[in-house]
Structures are given as C-alpha cells and as structure tokens.
Amino acid sequence: MSTDTDAISQRLQRIAAKARLREVEVSTHYGTPALKVGGKAFVSIKNDETIVLALPIDRKEQLIEMAPEIYFQSDHYVGWPSLPLRIAAIGDDELQLRLIEAWLFRAPKKLRTAFDAS
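The chain above was modelled as a monomer; its predicted structure follows.
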C-alpha cells in the first residue's frame, strides 16, 4: 500500500468511526483496500486519486449531476451499483454523508435498523 493509499484508508476509517457506522471491517475488495459491513464492501480505494462507493444506480446519476467535479462514471462501472469519486475533491462532511449512504446500502437489515434508531 502506498503512503497516499494508507492516508486515504485512515481518513475513511476515521470518518466511518465519526459517523458511528457499526461492524465496519478493514479488508480488501478485488485486491484493493476496502471497508466492509456484513462481508460486503461499501467503499474501496481504487488508487491514490479514486475511491469507489457502493450506491444504487439511480443515486449515482444524481450525484454525478450534482457534483461532476467529485463524482464521475467510467465505462467499467456503467450498469453497476458502484460510483467512483475523486478523493482529493471531497470534503470530510460530504464524504461522511456518502459513507453513511454506502454503508446503509450494503449493511444487513438488523444493522440498518439499529442505525436508523440511533
């Protein structure tokens, strides 16, 4: 893992903890560093510039329209519930909102219910 990738991983872990996302595991997804819940990746680090969030396809399009300087689509992710974003272009507050969204998208129902209740 490069120093930049390590720093990105630490940032993601810190923000996930701040958001009180439960049962987050530091792992890998297709060989890249990732955070998982219930064995499913909700965010992975593609490289030193890009992370990929797990989000519903219709939500991807809304975010790309809302902030094309942050969110983008590449041919590889068309038709998949995965949204690449430029990690340097996103602030911690917005990143926290997106991590919560991605976590809710992937988390088992009992965790989502507990999160919604808190």
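The chain has a mean pLDDT of 96.
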